[in-house]
């Protein structure tokens, strides 16, 4: 290929790239911090960002029956959605059962996930009290906490998950 053709291709490509960068669809508008705040739901392993509220396994059993059992089964055994209860001691087997009780490293991750994604057909509709209660119910059903324990912003981060010690940080530079 001649130098002239290479130069022409470069100019054509550069011009097209510039035009694409300049001509955007101009959809939407920048989001304000106030509009972003309700979607800033992340909860870290240490519990930073947990909201006020509280809930017990007894309260959670009722919420679970009403809003979760349709997908996760009456006792969290799964079908059609993921199993949430059981599986302890199976991770090293040929048929590991990854549940909240057997695999998840932090109780705060359970709260975070339920809060932002459940119930599947109506995510982010549970109150903080309902989310704490459902979290307490699932933790108690897995034998991780006692049925009478109340979960809140102080108690939930202190829950020691059975598999917590089997996780390691791959990218420590990403921690805040």
Provide structural commentary:
- It is a single chain.
- It is built from six helices and two strands; from the N terminus they run H-H-E-H-H-H-H-E.
- Helix 3 crosses helix 6 (128-141) and helix 5 (107-117) crosses helix 6 (128-141).
- The protein has helices at 3-22, 33-36, 57-67, 69-72, 107-117, 128-141; strands at 54-56, 150-152.
- It has one domain: Cytochrome Bc1 Complex, Chain D, domain 2 (Orthogonal Bundle), CATH 1.10.760.
- Strands 1-2 form a two-stranded antiparallel ribbon.
- By secondary structure, the chain is mainly alpha-helical.
- The mean pLDDT is 89.
- The radius of gyration is 23 Å and the shape is elongated.
Q: Which descriptors would you attach to this protein?
A:
176 residues, mainly alpha, Cytochrome Bc1 Complex, Chain D, domain 2, two-stranded antiparallel sheet, 6 helices, 36% helix
- What Rg, in angstroms, do the CA atoms define? 23 Å
Class from helix and strand fractions: mainly alpha
Low-confidence parts lasting 5 or more residues at pLDDT below 50? none
> Share of helix among residues?
25-40%
Give the overall pLDDT as a whole number. Answer: 89
Overall, the morphology is: elongated
> How far is the N terminus from the C terminus?
51 Å
Strand order of the largest sheet: 1-2
For this structure, what is the CATH class?
Mainly Alpha
Relevant CATH superfamily: Cytochrome c-like domain
Strand content: under 5%
